[in-house]
Structures are given as C-alpha cells and as structure tokens.
Amino acid sequence: MKVRVDITLKPGVLDPQGEAVRHALGALGFDGVQGVRQGKVIELDLATEDADLAKTQAAQMAEKLLSNQVIENFTVTVI
Amino acid sequence: MKVRVDITLKPGVLDPQGEAVRHALGALGFDGVQGVRQGKVIELDLATEDADLAKTQAAQMAEKLLSNQVIENFTVTVI
C-alpha cells in the first residue's frame, strides 16, 4: 500500500531555501514572486494492505524520522 | 495567488535518498517498508490573480529552475 507524507515548515518558521529560490527566480527574470515555501514529499510503499494501519505506521515514521517536529508539520495520505 | 509545484523523480531513476531513509526506518524497527521515494513541494505565492497565467508562470519556473528536467517530473496545481 502506498502512503504519501507531505512535510512542510510550520507557519512563521523562516525558509532560507525558499528565499534563495525566490531570489534566483527574480534573477532569471520572473518578477511577481511574492513568496516561496519549500517542503518534502515522501512516498512510502508499505507491505500492509490495511489502510488504517498504513496511515498509523506512516505517522509514526514521520514523527520519529521523516520530519522535524520542532519546525515541521506533516500530513499522511493513503494513495 | 498560490501555486503548488510537486516535483518527483521520474520512474526508473534511482533514489539514493529514499534508499537511505528506507534503511534508517529499518534500523528504527519499522519493518515492512518496501520502498521510499522522496520529492519536493514548492509553494509559490504569485502576484497575479489570473489562475491560468499563474499556472503558466509556475510551469516556466519549474522548467527553468525548480526541477531537473532530465530526472524529474513536475505537476502544477493552483491552490
């Protein structure tokens, strides 16, 4: 079963990577870019065929390893 | 207007980062993880209020800077 974990920075947390992308886009001539926020998407292929179990496992993985709970939020979606 | 650009590796392209995450999950006791694929999500805050223009601009940004067209696919979604 495939599960998608979307990891984004919490609101208010500075995003230096996003700022760097914004400046680079400006340098390439793309004006009108008011903000850029960068996140991660992790697609997990899990052995279980139980959707609830897969969601629970993925959330535990996100809490323990995939995301930094201090500055990041995550959402889990079965796909 | 906010636009989301999802960037994923093309099928068949090796994902060393994903492999490293898979091994780390195994070391943490998460068994049953058959595969891990990692991608990026970039949220753009564009000045335009025209959805079609925003999508076109974001696609151009993805082609020119945000994604590596050789090994990555991208999708653009107005949010």
From TrEMBL, chains A, B:
Pathway: Purine metabolism; IMP biosynthesis via de novo pathway; 5-amino-1-(5-phospho-D-ribosyl)imidazole from N(2)-formyl-N(1)-(5-phospho-D-ribosyl)glycinamide: step 1/2
Organism superkingdom: Bacteria
Keyword Mitochondrion among record annotations: no
Alphabetical list of Pfam families matching this protein: PurS
Keyword Ligase: yes
SUPFAM superfamilies per record: PurS-like
Catalytic reactions on record: N(2)-formyl-N(1)-(5-phospho-beta-D-ribosyl)glycinamide + L-glutamine + ATP + H2O = 2-formamido-N(1)-(5-O-phospho-beta-D-ribosyl)acetamidine + L-glutamate + ADP + phosphate + H(+)
Subcellular location per the Swiss-Prot or TrEMBL entry: Cytoplasm
EC identifiers of the protein: 6.3.5.3
Enzyme class name: ligase
GO molecular function: ATP binding; phosphoribosylformylglycinamidine synthase activity
Biological process terms in GO annotation: 'de novo' IMP biosynthetic process
NCBIfam families for the chain: phosphoribosylformylglycinamidine synthase subunit PurS, PRK05974.1
Family of this protein: Belongs to the PurS family.
Record-linked HAMAP family: PurS
Function: Part of the phosphoribosylformylglycinamidine synthase complex involved in the purines biosynthetic pathway. Catalyzes the ATP-dependent conversion of formylglycinamide ribonucleotide (FGAR) and glutamine to yield formylglycinamidine ribonucleotide (FGAM) and glutamate. The FGAM synthase complex is composed of three subunits. PurQ produces an ammonia molecule by converting glutamine to glutamate. PurL transfers the ammonia molecule to FGAR to form FGAM in an ATP-dependent manner.
Stated name of the protein: Phosphoribosylformylglycinamidine synthase subunit PurS
Taxon lineage: Bacteria, Pseudomonadati, Pseudomonadota, Alphaproteobacteria, Rhodobacterales
GN (gene name): purS
